[in-house]
TrEMBL record:
The name this protein goes by in its record: Nucleoside triphosphate pyrophosphohydrolase
Alphabetical UniProt keywords: Hydrolase
PANTHER family per UniProt: NUCLEOSIDE TRIPHOSPHATE PYROPHOSPHOHYDROLASE (PTHR30522)
Coiled-coil stretches noted in the UniProt entry, renumbered to this chain: none
Length: 224
């Protein structure tokens, strides 16, 4: 069985389940979201654990979520589309974003690849009025913070490295060697900051998201 045939069989299996399974029939896009989040988290666990068998299984579970959403969409009364439409749209987008592969553009370094990617993405999203448009607040707060800081830097907004170091030193004034030098050190530092929040009765998640909103406000102010 070829890869194309295997994917087709998976799509047909999803279609049959939707037709014949009473639980599946009552699920819509919104009801499916918690399962998508769960399966994504399990895939991340498999990647980080380095377990090849789990990785293969969890990739399949995540693919099932894609097939599930596409099958639900295919039965929409107003704007139906199916897994083939999804695949075609993906292929067209990836071809546009890789002109150094599918056209005559040149990219000999990862940095040059990102230039082409970002240029193509900017052209596709030309209707957006802010660099923050399209950034999902459903992302985990740390990932969201990193994403927003990257976007903010593009418009000259946000903490610079010196300010970030100063802020960290102020928090850990009694332990000047606490500043991380490796990614592992960073993890321990972040965990330590969460411990500080817990000891003081603060909500670490809320604190970070509040700081993110402040940066976002600065970005939108700078753009306007």
């Amino acid at each position: 069985m070829t890869a194309h045939e295997a994917l087709g069989e998976a799509a047909e299996t999803m279609r049959a389940v939707r037709d014949r399974c009473v639980w599946t029939q009552q699920i819509d896009h919104r009801a499916l979201v918690p399962y998508l989040v769960e399966e994504s988290a399990e895939l991340i666990d498999a990647v980080e654990a380095g377990d090849r068998a789990d990785l293969r299984e969890e990739l399949g579970d995540l693919l099932w979520q894609v097939l599930f959403h596409a099958e639900i969409a295919s039965r929409d009364d107003i704007d139906p589309f199916d897994i083939d439409d999804v695949a075609r749209g993906l292929t067209e987008k990836m071809v546009r974003r890789h002109p150094h592969v599918f056209a005559d553009a040149v990219a000999t370094t990862p940095e040059e690849v990102l230039v082409h990617w970002n240029a193509a993405k900017a052209a596709e999203k030309s209707a957006r009025s802010s660099v923050l448009d399209g950034v999902s607040h459903h992302m985990p707060s740390l990932a969201l913070a990193q994403k927003v800081l990257g976007k903010a830097a593009g418009v000259g907004v946000g903490l610079d490295l010196a300010e970030a170091v100063a802020a960290a030193e102020a928090i850990a004034a009694d332990e000047p060697d606490v500043l991380p030098e490796t990614e592992e050190d960073l993890g321990e530092t972040l965990l330590g900051l969460v411990a500080v929040a817990r000891a003081k009765g603060w909500d670490a998640e809320r604190a970070l998201r509040t700081a993110i909103r402040a940066i976002e406000a600065e970005v939108r102010a700078a753009e306007s």
